[in-house]
């Protein structure tokens, strides 16, 4: 008898339901999100016929937390079902939209009973690949947080301190630079900045880590800060300075977190066997390679073919046809992190002659910049799938045979 398990997730407890091949409830239980709850779940599965050779598959909506990490480590198939899909399955049996934890657990178990083939289990990635995924996502979140705080600081400074923007919003230097964070922490308002002496500016620049052109920077900052600008009322300006100091503190913490995570991510990526293959592709460095590897994993059976990987990354187009209507669109439902890493990857790969020529050909055919970049991403993803499957490095003459120079 085939048994399937559904678990409705919550922060402190979970509802578990086991159903047989006829859809009849075999067992149900309300367990806690702790070691005792995990033991109760294993006992339920064992009593229902679970064994190492024939483990009972488990369906969940949100595969996170210690309990599901332990379930995944046992080697059984764990399916993470999209909550919207679960809602549609629920409507097959009840038209009322009343939500029940036990009913959701039953719906999850029945999804595996009837349609397990159209859903993918969580990949069997190695421990190192899972660690790289955690670090790469954390570093990417830190970068996004840093950009958000930098934009907040820029918007705030524009309201009362335009000299700071003139000083640090220049090519190659931003508000998230060490110089900007150090100077703004010491002088968060225009009055305090104008009072900074040349000696104090030199000291702040050295404190930030700058070693070259200190005198040039000092004179430039001194000229900007003592220039003629509009001012807020004194007390208002002082209050906004306090807000700037708080924002600079948050931005400094975000910048240090992004740098620390970048180092840890690159170190973990270099230890993975697939790093050599990924690094052979143009435009892929340690961080970009870690982000790509963290999202696709190292389970070779995860993607049936290159088309599945391209669809997962959002690089493959999608065709919508109904009657006489026929349209081709780019994918909106995709792994957003992999798509973001892909844009950085292709942007860094454009200096490669073969990649640049392929991009230019797509532009000449009428593609816009984003569409051409997505097409190049689609091409390189197919190459990546092939290289990982065969264990060989990237070869531009094989990837772009039509663009290879003719030999005599």
What does this molecule look like?
This protein is an alpha/beta fold. It folds into three domains: 4-122, Nucleotidyltransferase, domain 5, CATH 3.30.420; 131-267; 276-403, no CATH class. It is 57% helix and 9% strand. A five-stranded mixed sheet has the order 3-2-1-4-5. A two-stranded antiparallel ribbon has the order 6-7. Helix 15 (336-349) crosses helix 17. It is globular and about 80 Å long.
Distance between the termini: 67 Å
What fraction of residues sit in β-strands? 5-15%
Order of adjacent strands in the largest pleated sheet: 3-2-1-4-5
**Portion of residues in helices?**
55-70%
Name the average pLDDT: 90
Radius of gyration: 28 Å
Shape: globular
DSSP helical segment count: 18
Give the SSE string. Answer: EEEHEHEHHHHHHHHHHHHEEHHHH
Domain module tally: 3
- Give a quick account of the main beta sheet: strands, pairing sense, barrel closure: 5 strands, mixed
Protein structure class: alpha/beta
Name the descriptors.
9% strand; two-stranded antiparallel ribbon; 408 residues; five-stranded mixed sheet; Nucleotidyltransferase, domain 5
Question: Which helices and strands occur, and which strands form pairs?
Answer:
Blueprint: E1 4-8, E2 13-19, E3 25-32, H1 35-47, E4 58-60, H2 66-73, E5 78-80, H3 83-90, H4 101-115, H5 127-158, H6 162-168, H7 178-186, H8 190-194, H9 198-208, H10 214-225, H11 234-270, H12 275-279, H13 286-296, H14 306-313, E6 318-322, E7 325-329, H15 336-349, H16 353-364, H17 369-390, H18 396-399
Parallel strand pairs: 1-4, 4-5
Antiparallel strand pairs: 1-2, 2-3, 6-7
């Amino acid at each position: 008898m085939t048994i399937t398990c559904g678990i409705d997730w919550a922060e402190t407890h979970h509802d578990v339901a086991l159903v047989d091949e006829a859809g009849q409830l075999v067992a149900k239980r309300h367990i806690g999100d702790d070691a005792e709850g995990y033991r109760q779940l294993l006992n339920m599965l064992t009593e229902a016929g679970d064994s190492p050779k024939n483990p009972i598959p488990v369906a969940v909506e949100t595969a996170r937390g210690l309990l599901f990490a332990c379930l995944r480590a046992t080697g059984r198939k764990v399916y993470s079902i999209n909550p919207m899909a679960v809602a549609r399955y629920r409507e097959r049996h009840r038209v009322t939209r009343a939500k029940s934890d036990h009913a959701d657990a039953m719906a999850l178990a029945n999804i595996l009973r009837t349609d397990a083939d159209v859903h993918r289990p969580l990949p069997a990635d190695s421990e190192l690949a899972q660690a790289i995924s955690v670090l790469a996502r954390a570093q990417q979140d830190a970068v996004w947080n840093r950009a958000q705080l930098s934009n907040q600081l820029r918007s705030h400074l524009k309201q009362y301190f335009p000299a700071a923007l003139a000083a640090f919003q220049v090519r190659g230097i931003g508000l998230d630079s060490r110089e900007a964070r150090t100077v703004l922490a010491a002088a968060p308002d225009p009055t305090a900045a104008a009072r900074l002496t040349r000696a104090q500016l030199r000291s702040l620049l050295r404190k930030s880590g700058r070693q070259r052109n200190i005198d040039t920077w000092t004179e430039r900052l001194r000229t900007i800060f003592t220039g003629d600008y509009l001012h807020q009322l004194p007390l208002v300006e002082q209050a906004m300075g306090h807000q700037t100091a708080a924002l600079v503190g948050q931005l400094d913490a975000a910048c240090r977190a992004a740098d620390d995570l970048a180092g840890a991510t690159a170190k973990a990526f270099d230890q993975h066997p697939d790093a050599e293959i990924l690094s052979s592709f143009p435009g892929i460095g340690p961080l970009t390679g870690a982000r790509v590897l963290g999202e696709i994993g190292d389970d070779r059976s995860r993607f049936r073919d290159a088309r599945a990987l391209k669809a997962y990354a959002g690089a493959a187009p999608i065709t919508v046809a109904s009657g006489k209507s026929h349209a081709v669109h780019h994918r909106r439902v995709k792994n957003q992190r992999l798509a973001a890493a892909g844009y950085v990857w292709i942007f860094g790969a454009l200096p490669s002659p073969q990649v640049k020529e392929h991009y230019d050909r797509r532009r000449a055919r009428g593609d816009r910049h984003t569409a051409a970049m997505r097409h190049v991403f689609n091409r390189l993803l197919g190459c990546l799938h092939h290289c990982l499957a065969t264990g060989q490095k990237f070869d531009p003459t094989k990837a772009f045979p039509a663009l290879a120079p003719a030999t005599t």
